[in-house]
Design a protein that fits this description.
Blueprint (H helix, E strand, L loop, with lengths): L2 H8 L3 H9 L6 E2 L5 E2 L2 H15 L4 H12 L5 H35 L9 H7 L2
Antiparallel strand pairs: 1-2
Helix pairs in contact: 1-3, 3-4
């Protein structure tokens, strides 16, 4: 199938699919005329990547997961370790976002929001 069909079936834009091919994440066959020829396996892997990306895995993490997926001799413990490491990253990001929220909420609460020029929000952003 051509890239348009693969895009429709995978739910990814053709531009994204081309990018994934350029970085070697997917490797569709080429026809004699040089056009890409996506197989069911390619579409399945594109969906796999899309789901992993929606879960926040980086492109390089997706590469690792895809390598594990393709390796039928892999240990499930390797996959679990990758997922656990990602959970730790997510938890760290959540903690960072909560800190950001608390800081910004405190600055907003300190701001009177009136016509005076002094602004605790701007002062807080300008401070070291």
């Amino acid at each position: 199938m051509n890239i348009g069909q693969a895009a429709e079936r995978s739910g990814l834009p053709p531009k994204t699919i081309r990018y994934y091919e350029d970085i070697g994440l997917v490797r569709p066959a080429r026809r004699g005329n040089g056009f890409r020829d996506y197989a069911e396996r390619d579409v399945h892997e594109l969906r796999f990547i899309a789901r992993a990306r929606r879960l926040g895995f980086s492109v390089e993490e997706c590469r690792h997961l895809l390598d594990l997926y393709r390796d039928k001799q892999r240990a499930s413990g390797d996959v679990r370790a990758a997922a656990q490491a990602h959970i730790q990253d997510i938890r760290a990001k959540i903690a960072e976002l909560r800190d950001m929220e608390r800081t910004l909420a405190g600055l907003v609460q300190a701001c009177h929001g009136d016509s005076r020029p002094d602004c605790p929000i701007l002062e807080g952003l300008a401070s070291d």
